[in-house]
Specification:
elongated; about 60% helix; mainly alpha
Length: about 60
C-alpha cells in the first residue's frame, strides 16, 4: 500500500514534537548568548580606555 501522506505513523509525530522542542530550547539558548555578548560588548566599550604601560626593552645578555 502506497503512502498518500494522509496519515503519519505515531513515531513521526513524536519525533517531530521532540525536534520542535529541541529547536525551541536551542534558539532560546542562542538568544540568551547573543544578549549576553551584546551586554558585555557594551560594557567593554563604555569603559574608558586604559593606557598600556610602556614596554621595557629586553636587556641584552653577554
Amino acid at each position: 500500500m502506497a503512502e498518500t501522506g494522509l496519515f503519519k505513523p505515531k513515531g513521526d509525530a513524536k519525533s517531530e514534537a521532540t525536534a520542535r522542542t529541541a529547536r525551541a530550547i536551542i534558539e532560546g539558548e542562542a538568544a540568551a548568548r547573543r544578549a549576553k555578548t551584546e551586554r558585555l560588548r557594551a560594557a567593554r566599550l563604555a569603559r574608558e580606555p586604559v593606557e598600556a604601560p610602556p614596554k621595557k626593552k629586553p636587556s641584552r645578555r653577554k
